[in-house]
Here is the input.
Amino acid sequence: MMPDSLPVKNKFSRWFVIFSLVFAGEMIFSLPFHVARFFRPTLLDVFNLTNTELGDIIAVYGITAMLAYFPGGALADRFSARKLMTLSLLATGLGGFYFAQIPNQAGLFFLFGYWGITTIFLFWAAMIKATRDWGGHLSQGKAFGILDGGRGLVAAGAATLAVLILSAFMSGTIENTSDTERQKALEAVIYFYTFMTIIAAVLTWLFITDTDKKNIPKKGNIRKSIKEVLHKQVVWLQAIIVVCAYSAYKALDYYSLYGVDVLGMNEVDSAWFVSNASYIRAVSAIAAGFIVDRLSASKVISFLFGILVISYVLLSILKPDEHMVTVIISNIIITFIAVYALRGVYFAMLEETKVSGKLTGTAVGLISVIGYTPDAFFNSLAGRILDASPGLKGYQHFYLVLAVFSVVGLLATLLLVHAKKNKPVDIT
Here is the structure.
């Protein structure tokens, strides 16, 4: 089905739209997140930070992002996704030039706070709304699966190139790399992500079409729309589901450090492991999307949370001796698969719970302001857990906390199914 609100002349241009959404949807977060995710040991060393300090810096991003989600949702219901997203990408890319100057902690606090606004206020709800419009009523799982799976492919491909750049600047053995070489290598990686973000802005402007005016609510209806969304129980439950799923996603940022601290990898090897595992995202999210269209988002999400509970409990008790390393790595890969699948389909529940298309931006704003609170607290929490118990013990505590989040996510999904059956939500 070709949606009215995202008009395209033919299938070829239609796929250019989703490609642009995919590429922009990942590159917008590459500077605030990819560098820390794939190159955390190098980042900590170059900026002379502890896990706790970096966690607090990223928490500033989360706080400003939380303030931006809800007003950004209302904005997305009124203005063109093309214009909002392009401006957001350009503003985010400008921050990359400052990041490459290796600012002090005060500068990093300012930068990540700035990124919390530029990546969310004009971008996030606009992207989700455009994706929902692209999918139409019958292909929500497919649309969001392609979005997040494609984003994973973009992230993995960009990370692969970034690791090559990092290793090219580190002469000789990794252990003998000088501090100056390590800093220059990280600067090159930051510049790479900066230019990729600007390229995404160009693609967005060229290929994403302006929103059809008939799907823009009138000014007088904004307050009514917000009130209507606030009274939907299923929207609040979906927000809790996103909190738990996104916490699991945030945890992936620590896998490269886990590889160094526990599994005995060096910086480049751990970066390769995480970047290669990121390719799973494309297959996992897209497959989950197609399964959702055949079953339901709630059934798939319940199953995935159950898998995560088991995997995290195992990781919290296993020790990396020669007999258990394979089991540990297998469980890590399973968590990658489940987390990426969750990320790919949790917004497909908007259609399952019958949230009106005209309320998409507002609903996404509410879900996101709650659902993405891990941006404000998770890194600080994880940093303190790991710094309080260095080595294996800290990571075991870390995985146990993730198991608790997954249990809560499973319960919230089951409650949502119950609420949906007992109190149907009208399409307005």
